Amino acid sequence: MRKLILLLLTISVFTSCDDGDIINIEFDFDDTFSACGELVFYQIKDNPYESLSLKITDPRWTLEKLIAIDTITGQLINDQEIVIDIGLAGNQFNYRSYNADPRGLFCNDVPPSNIQILEDLSSVGGKAYINVTLVEDDLDGIPAEFEDENTDGDNNPATNPKDTDGDGIPDYLDVDDDGDNVLTSVELDDNADGDNDPRTNPRDTDEDGIPDYLDSDDDQDLVPTINEESRSADQNPANDYSSPGIADYLNKTITDSVPATAYRANQINQVFKITLRVEGVSFSTITQDLFIMGTLVDSRLIKTRSITPEF
Q1: Which residues of the chain carry a pLDDT beneath 50?
Q2: Where is the composition biased (Acidic residues) (predicted)?
């Protein structure tokens, strides 16, 4: 855990005698925060129990809207930094302290009755800055950075990407790089060399110098792998066997051909990242005006999208 703010926040406690006592509070929050409702971001620490929370009432933003993607391109609709004005339209940024663990207060319709808020401060101004990024991968066993020839020299597989089978889905997002309806993960080496690196010594059944996962005719029997489905027409040649122990698409002696009519669906894994910082806040008894809340942890930030290439 890092120090959220590298400082001691000074809080002046005013009593009836105004004795000028000063209490030093050290914020020691984690690098992550949580979310609930539509839309509250919050961060909690123990010993003592404290929280920072941002409530966004602007109807333009919910968690789902923050991570919305274009259904055609698959890219983020909101790829620019999002700025929320605190104190306007009900947007609130709060610091609170408690007598007990406050986790039950957030995201529950009926909060526990034994938790008391000892101090509740609401900022009268400031801005919250939200940044959303998206990383996609086909999880085919080959890291995305190795599925790009990097002809543009930017080390980014998303720009000028390699598309071996020309189906419109770049290799780093394509679960079937050669378009033969056998998954790349199935056509890779079975780690025969023991180095746990799928890029080394990938399987090359016909020994033509092209690894199976990039070869449209794996056994070189002149029947495209995609058409070697004489046993079941389910867009998966890997489960068609005429002889025990070896699939037809890897068996050069089997040349039965059933023309394929479709490609299999392509599942793309999506991981969204949301970071949050709050600047220029103004509390009555806290002098710090910058809070870097880190990265959101939420299961809703992991998704998949499906594309079926046109045949």
Answers
A1: 1-24
A2: 205-221
**Tens digit of each residue's pLDDT (9 = 90 or more) over 100-122:** 999 888 988 777 888 999 999 99
First vs last C-alpha separation in the chain: 51
How far is the C-alpha of 131 from the C-alpha of 293, rounded, in Å? 12
Question: What 3-state DSSP class applies to 305?
Answer: strand
Q: Please name the residue that has the structure tokens 């910058």.
A: 290
Cβ-count burial 83-108 (b if 16+ within 10 Å, e if not): ebebbeeebebbbbbbeeebbebbee
Ramachandran assignment for 242, one of left (phi > 0), alpha (psi -120 to 50 degrees), beta (any other): alpha
**Site of tokens 């020309």:** 166
Surface-to-core class of residue 252, CB atoms within 10 Å of its CB (0-12 exposed, 13-18 middle, 19+ buried) = middle
Residue 237, φ and ψ in degrees, nearest 5: -60, -15
